[in-house]
Amino acid sequence: MEKHSYEIENLNLWYGSSQALHEIKMDIPSNQVTAIIGPSGCGKSTFLKALNRMVEMVPGVKVAGNIKYNGDDILSSKYHPEELRTKVGMVFQHPNPFPKSIYDNVAFGARVKGIRKKAVLDEMVEKSLKRAAIWDEVKDRLNKNAMGLSGGQQQRICIARAIANEPDVVLMDEPTSALDPISTLRVEELIQQLKEHYTIVVVTHNMQQASRISDRTAFFLNGEIIEYAQTDQIFSNPKDRRTEDYISGRFG
Ligand SMILES: Nc1ncnc2c1ncn2[C@@H]1O[C@H](COP(=O)(O)OP(=O)(O)OP(=O)(O)O)[C@@H](O)[C@H]1O
User: Fold this and answer.
1) What average pLDDT does the segment 63-73 reach?
2) What is the mean predicted confidence (pLDDT) over 31-48?
3) Which of 19, 94, 103, 116 has the maximum number of C-beta atoms within 10 A of its C-beta?
4) Distance from the CA of 20 to the center of ligand 1, in angstroms?
5) Per-residue DSSP letters for the chain?
6) From the alpha carbon of 49, which atom of ligand 1 is closest?
7) How many domains does one find in the chain?
8) 42 lines ligand 1 (CB under 6 A)
9) Whole domain around residue 206: which residue ranges?
């Protein structure tokens, strides 16, 4: 049976009195890439930030329904959201390394957890940078400031920082939209490699990207899921007219 990192049912979300998500039902398979597509303002980022409960930082937000993460109801009052912070990593649209060395960026989470041994940190930094496909480019300058890298390299450092915490899910909110085409391709290849170890959920405006890198695609419109299926099916044989109109560029 397919394992799911998330099982979501009846998810509704409001910013004040304005409803941004309506009755979302979605299972997110483990060790696959799930893409979230849809026009601007349809709720993609909101949905992503509901998965790690980051959305609750917005004043006046109300979330109702069921989000099961590895079988635990993360919206229950008994659930400690801190657990999600380590298990669910996040990568943002604009690369946001800390103004620190490459090494310190990747070692950051481990140091927060109290890990001090240099050998342990060294090994973790190397492993994470290798997994993020940037080790060869930076191994000779680990003590240089990460802000001095190109945007594409910075984004891979941010991915290394996210995976250094050994998460099992990585959420990515338009991770390549600020990158040039070559860096975009590198990050796309990386995302496909990462699914061997992590469950990936990626929000993208770019439909070619969704079709290239994802196993499943969910099409959101006005805060609802219109269609969610295998990516091949969404792009070759969509069931809903609105999906077809969107993927063929008729709106959005
Ligand atoms: N912090 C907020 N406070 C109030 N309303 C918000 C907030 N964030 C988002 N919204 C509203 O919720 C709806 C969904 O926004 P969201 O950012 O999730 O969409 P999106 O699909 O990610 O858009 P984009 O592709 O432009 O990033 C929009 O109507 C938006 O205006």
Assistant:
1) 97
2) 97
3) 103
4) 7
5) ---EEEEEEEEEEEETTEEEEEEEEEEEETTSEEEEE-STTSSHHHHHHHHTTGGGGSTTEEEEEEEEETTEETTSTTS-THHHHHHEEEE-SS----SSBHHHHHHHHHHHTT---HHHHHHHHHHHHHHTT-HHHHTT-TTSBGGGS-HHHHHHHHHHHHHHT--SEEEEESTTTTS-HHHHHHHHHHHHHHTTTSEEEEE-S-HHHHHHH-SEEEEEETTEEEEEEEHHHHHHS-SSHHHHHHHTTS--
6) 18
7) 1
8) yes
9) 29-53+80-247
